[in-house]
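Lab meeting prep.
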Amino acid sequence: MNNNPIGVYDSGFGGLSVWRELYRALPEESIVYLGDGKNCPYGSLPAEQIRALATDSVRELLQRGCKMIVVACNTATAAAIEYLRATFADVPIVGLEPAVKPACKNTRTGVVGVIATERSLKSEKFLATLAKYGQGVNVIKSVGKGFVEAVEANEEYSPQTEQVVRAVVEPIINKGADVLVLGCTHYPFLRDVIAKVIGDRNVEIIDSGEAVEKRVESLLDEYDLRAESGHKAEYEFVSFAADDYAERLRRKAFSK
């Protein structure tokens, strides 16, 4: 048993979609959430810079006593996860990747859409996953241009954001996709708007949040790291941005 917190890291607000899965499923586990904020978005940054930012963030979480790290950022996972696991070998580290496997398994039309950041779509990890599970499937890849910025600005439901989302999603659906993968942790905050754009067309939306939560549970058991029964969880939010950013993270985490 271990009452230390789980550390969750993202470039900004996006990883809160994963934080919410952990919060709901693991009510006795304390969580420290680090949203960089200062350097967000990561999507088009050089891999070396992302690796350095991720290393600093994980080090900060470990200094705060975290017993496990969740890299709740698809872009940081793609650029840095192997390096992080080698550098911090004594700590379980969970990463993310777009849910290509279940999407390709679930498609009926043989067409799948994957929306992610530029860096994620070009990563070796994503391309290897696509090669393994995407045989015989037409996978349409698209950058969610403006998606991260809309979430960071708390403008998920503005008319401008709907236009941004429609510009990306509509062409994918028009090409026959019946499964849409949200390949960035910011994107689930736009799920309602994406669903509005899809309308009554039969398209399934998939993200990685639930799968990550299950992996965290598995590692908690494997390393005997679960908090004690009845432990009162505490939640901390930190960032490298201006002082009010951490409070904005807290408000976003507990908002509907």
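Slide two material, second protein:
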Amino acid sequence: MEDFIIPAGELEYRVHYFAELVSTNDHASSAEYGEGDIVVAGSQTRGRGQRGNFWHSAPGRNLTFSLVVEPRFLPACEQFLLSETVSLAVVDTLRRCGIESTVKWPNDIYVGDKKIAGILIENDICGTVLSRSVIGIGLNVNDIDFPGHLPNPVSMAGISGRDDWDLPGILSAFVRDFDTRYYQLSTCCTDRITTDYDALIYRKNIPSRFRRPDGEVFRATIRRVEPTGMLILEKDNGKEEGFLFKEVELIIAL
């Protein structure tokens, strides 16, 4: 892959390709990058994921990139809308490729019970609004051989049976899908975003097991996600309880 430009909507997205980086999010956090810049790495030595985990990606086989935006129109208290926006863009792109997916709260992308993509968003806040956001995305594309310690990975190749997906083409498709969703966000079409996100929540309305940070396991059912990003679970006794990120983990039994 080489550097190139992706025109989409009113914003021009500039792709900066590096054969290897420690972390695309770390690199994109530099002041030299602004809205519309995309840092892509053929390989990351310490790519970061949610919950302090590291993102595995075979060199040259998948997409690992970070997109910089400056959503100054978005109040900091509504930042979860950006997470929903990015999640939906990934789902939209996979659907273009014939792959249906869901969103495991808050923003992991799943096909069936397996994870195909992860998202890590790091926001800067100025006053009451978001001044700058670095959106890191890892999408499993052509990889079919994953390390044994990864619990449930899957790739586009593993689902489709073909391992020759065009990485620049998929990135370009994602950018255009993101631009469409970002336009919805910036023009206050947030009802559409929240409705679409709600319809794609993984295991919504299905009784499941969850684990608290102290190790306690309990049964509950996902009912909804609040605008703040809080996950609302209904326990077996019929009472609802809200959880923020890192306060609860869905247990997936394969």
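Talking points for slide two:
The chain has a mean pLDDT of 94.
The CA atoms of residues 106 and 245 lie 7 Å apart.
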